[in-house]
Amino acid sequence: MPRFISTVVVIAIMNEILSPSTGLLNNLLHNVFGMTPVYFMNEPGWFRPLYILSESWQYTGWTAIIYLAAITGISSDLYEAAEMDGATRLQQIFHVTIPSIMPTIMVMLIMNVGRMLSIGYEKVLLMYTPSNSGVSDIIDTLVYRTGLQNQNYSYATAIGLFAASLV
């Protein structure tokens, strides 16, 4: 599925925002609340929320275009009829807009769930640190670490073949 911002750029922006020394979030926490800096990218408890947040933000632009195109395709006659029946703007959204774009919502839901379940190797590798390895390790990063970093090529090949047989 297309996206407007590449994975490398998203992670670089996250690293800048969450940096313990110069990051916007840590400066805010320190200046407003007097907290000590937190290295969010190193904390195992923050890996999953940051992954989900970055994944959602990365695809927001493309998803918005799809939904706007679906809304544009709704006949204005439906809105005029609802207005003549006395429907408020909120009622028009719930009784005209959402039912009209429900097929698009379902297709996007299926595609996004599939995309989220096939966890992206690039993003996990870029967010990976030894401190958060317990929660961030997936089969692809295990193959990378076993084969290239530990130079155990036969074991990495076996893991890779097993992973390929699952797909």
Automatic annotation (TrEMBL):
It is found in: Cell membrane. GO terms for cellular component: plasma membrane. It is a multi-pass membrane protein. The chain crosses the membrane at residues 93-113. The lineage of its organism: unclassified sequences, metagenomes, organismal metagenomes. PANTHER family: BLL4140 PROTEIN (PTHR43227). It comes from human gut metagenome. This is Binding-protein-dependent transport system inner membrane component. Pfam families: BPD_transp_1. GO terms for biological process: transmembrane transport. Keywords: Cell membrane, Membrane, Transmembrane, Transmembrane helix, Transport. Residues 1-167 form the ABC transmembrane type-1 domain.
